[in-house]
Every structure is written in C-alpha cells, then in structure tokens.
Specification:
This protein is α/β, with parallel strands linked by helices. The chain has two domains: about 130 residues, Aspartate Aminotransferase, domain 1 (Alpha-Beta Complex), CATH 3.90.1150; about 270 residues, Type I PLP-dependent aspartate aminotransferase-like (Major domain) (Aspartate Aminotransferase, domain 2). About 35% of the residues lie in helices and about 15% in strands. The chain has 13 helices and 15 strands. A seven-stranded mixed beta sheet has the order 4-10-9-8-7-5-6, with helices on both faces. Helix 1 runs antiparallel to helix 13 and helix 8 packs parallel to helix 9. The longest helix is centred in the C-terminal third of the chain and has 26 residues. It is globular and about 75 Å long.
C-alpha cells in the first residue's frame, strides 16, 4: 500500500537496490537545482560516462587514423559486435537476430522492403490510427510505392467510442476480419501517445495464423518493458536508442529479424557493403553475399561515435541487471505516481485529471499520459517553470515518465505536491 507522504517516498528510496544508479547521470539544472526529469520517454539523460566512451574513440581516431578500424581499443570494423549481446538481452532476442545501425525510420523502411511484400489480393497493412507520424508516413509511403491507395491499403485501428486505448481483442479481431487481404501488421509496441503496451505475443500469433508478417516499432518499448521477441515469434522490429536507452539525441537505431530468416537469402533487401559477409567484405565481391541474420540488413560503416554513446548506457543497464530488476522498480514507481494522481483528484472540488494509459501494469511501461479537463497547456507551462520537465503532446496530453534508472520515489512525490498546488490554486 502506498502513502502520499515525503517520509514514505524517502523510505522507498532507502530500500531501492537501484538508487545508486541515479548518480551516474547528469540532470538539467533549473535555478541552480537538479530538475525533476520525467521525459526519458522522449530523450534519456546523459550518463556521466558517455564523454569518456566517446573521447576514447576520438583519441583512437587521432592516434590511428584509418588503422583504427583494426587497431583501436574497440576496433571499428566490428564495433557493432560490442553491442550485440546487450541489445539481444534487452529485446529478448538471440545475438544473430539484432544489430545496431542507421536511424529509426530508415530502419523501418528497410524492414518493410523485406517484410511488406504485397500482392494484388494480399496488400493491406494494419497499424494504429494514432501511431507516431513517422510510422504513419512510412506505411503510407510504402503502400503508395507499391502502387496502392494508402486509404485502401492501410487498416487504421481506432479505439471504441468513448475509449482512448485500443483493446487487444479489437486488434486481434481486425487481423481476423482482414485475414484474406492482410500482408503485414506494423504497430508501435508501446503507443507514444497513450503509453499502452500491446500484447505482442498474441498479435504475432494471430497475424501468422492468417499468413501475414508482423513487426513492431520499439521506440517506446526498448529499455522500458520486458520483451521476448524471439519467443513471441515476431518477424521484424526496429528500435531507437535516444529515449530509454540514453544514447543521446539522434542516437543510433537498430533492428531485430527473427532467427528463422537468418540464412534465408530469398528475402529481398536493399543491400549495402556492411551487410555483406564480413569474411569477404574486403575482397570487394561484385555480388552481394549476405552476412548471417540481422547483420545482412546493414548498409554502411558503423557510426562509431554514436554507437560508443549507446555502449556507455548499455553498460549501465548491464550493471543494473538488465530489464527484470528495472521493470520491477518501474512498475512500483509508476504505480506510486498513479496513486498520487488519484489522491490529487480526490482532494479537488472536482476531478481535473484523466489518465488515459491502461491501469494494468502489464499493459503499460513507465509512462502515464494525463489529459487535463481544462487549461492543460498552461498547467504544463507552470510545471516547467517549477523545475519539473515533462512533455506535451497535441492535442491535450501531458506525458510523465518516471524512469527506474535515474528517477526516485521522492521525485514522484514532489511532482505530485507541485501539481496539487497548481490545480488547487486554479480552483480557488
């Protein structure tokens, strides 16, 4: 049971086995104090070790020049190898199924080239109506590229009337309804707007039963929720590293391609030099010889400086025990936040806050999306001026994400005290 007191929050912090990791990150300063930072769902904080990791590569570049590809402390030729095992752990994957490369939407397009193979009769794509715009643009442009009208080819999933989040059974129903015409399902694993975490295992099974492929954008899922992509039989997925993975703005992305495709050379892909078998890469073959697994989707040299920033963060994840321990704290932090928001609503003359994120812990990550019944944008401004960094998403949502690696229970309590003061003053 939670209690809305500073003493209770501090008692949880004292017994938190992950509390020391907070000191391994830089916090923005507002009026000379650490900000309360709840926007890891948009851009994670910088680990204090990042500068050292990046500086090592700059020093090796200065010392070795091009020879750094083979003689630097972490040879650039195989830099992606240094990330593979940790990424696989985060995604519930096998090492052959993952690789860090490119940027997020670029990777989504590359995967759709391979796994959206429409025919005249089977050409439809299922995605959320309120997917992030990049996802919408990607599936719309892929459908158009293949000569289909996006308004016909794309099945947009909308919540039921009067509801905000999709029901899992409605996603499965849509797959069954379009069974004969469905080519692929492509959803955001955690919806950026509502914070809803979909039942990826059930969706994958349903899609395969009707002969469709299935993929997920993990931008808001990687480093946030427990994933078992291999066991769930997901075909393809992509992720970014600048949110919960703390690799910096525009950080390197990555992909997952299930092991059963590891040696399937019949799958079309847009080939590049770095996706060629590393054993023959420098023999400059005129015909593409795919590397095994996800690495065959690589195109260009590893972006080492960006990857080194990701490596700094992944090493912290490893020290923290990866996702099981982080997820346990995340559920408690988010539950504490939900409890405090309910307490605030009860204290007001009339409730002003609606949480649109599912209440069931298994159906959400650490983000709670709140709709304010009036003046939401102004409340967001006041929170920011008070030293609390959350984010606003049109038309009416404030997203709050207490991240287990660096947020504390006291952060959650102090956020609640500030929000209550703002709302109480408005009702006078």
């Amino acid at each position: 049971m939670f209690h809305n007191t500073l003493e209770f929050a501090q008692s949880l912090d004292r017994t938190d086995s992950l509390r020391a990791f907070r000191d391994r990150f830089y916090f923005p300063q507002i009026d000379g104090k650490d900000a309360i930072y709840f926007t890891g769902n948009s851009l994670g904080l910088q680990p204090k070790s990042t500068q050292h990791y990046v500086l090592n590569e700059l020093e090796d570049w200065a010392s070795y020049g091009v020879e750094g590809h083979f003689h630097s402390r972490m040879p650039w030729f195989r830099y992606q190898d240094f990330l593979t095992d940790q990424i696989a752990d985060l995604l519930g994957a096998k090492p052959v199924e993952v690789v860090a490369m490119n940027s997020l939407t670029t990777n989504l397009h590359l995967l759709l080239v391979s796994f959206y193979r429409p025919t005249k009769s089977r050409y439809k794509i299922i995605c959320e109506y309120d997917a992030f715009p990049s996802d919408l643009y990607a599936v719309q442009s892929q459908a158009a590229f293949h000569g289909f009208d996006p308004e016909d080819a794309i099945v947009y999933l909308k919540p039921r009337d009067g509801e905000v989040a999709l029901r899992d059974e409605d996603v499965l129903s849509a797959i069954g309804k379009h069974a004969d015409t469905l080519s692929t399902v492509m959803l955001g694993a955690v919806n950026y707007y509502t914070g809803q975490f979909f039942d990826l295992a059930a969706i994958s099974s349903a899609a395969h039963q009707v002969g469709a492929t299935v993929g997920f954008n993990l931008a808001h899922a990687a480093g946030n929720v427990l994933l078992r992509l291999h066991d769930w039989n997901v075909d393809y997925a992509c992720f970014c590293s600048y949110k919960y993975l703390n690799a910096g703005p525009g950080g390197v992305s990555g992909i997952f391609v299930h092991e059963r495709f590891a040696d399937d050379h019949t799958i079309p892909r847009l080939a590049g030099w770095w996706g060629n078998d590393p054993e023959t890469r420098f023999k400059m073959p005129r015909t593409f010889v795919p590397a095994q697994g996800a690495r065959s989707w690589q195109q260009s040299n590893a972006p080492v400086l960006s990857m080194s920033a990701l490596k700094a963060s992944l090493d912290i994840f490893s020290d923290a025990g990866m996702m099981p321990s982080l997820r346990a704290k995340s559920e408690q932090l988010t539950g504490f936040l939900e409890f405090i928001i309910a307490q605030i609503n009860t204290s007001l003359s009339e409730p002003l806050i609606d949480i649109i994120t599912p209440s069931m812990p298994s159906r959400r990550g650490c983000q709670l999306s709140m709709v304010f019944r009036k003046d939401g944008r102004d409340i967001f401004r006041q929170l920011t001026e008070s030293g609390i960094i959350v984010d606003w998403r049109e038309p009416d949502v404030i997203r709050v994400a207490p991240v287990p690696l660096y947020n504390s229970y006291e952060d959650v309590f102090r956020f609640g005290e500030c929000l209550k003061q703002i709302l109480t003053h408005r009702q006078r």
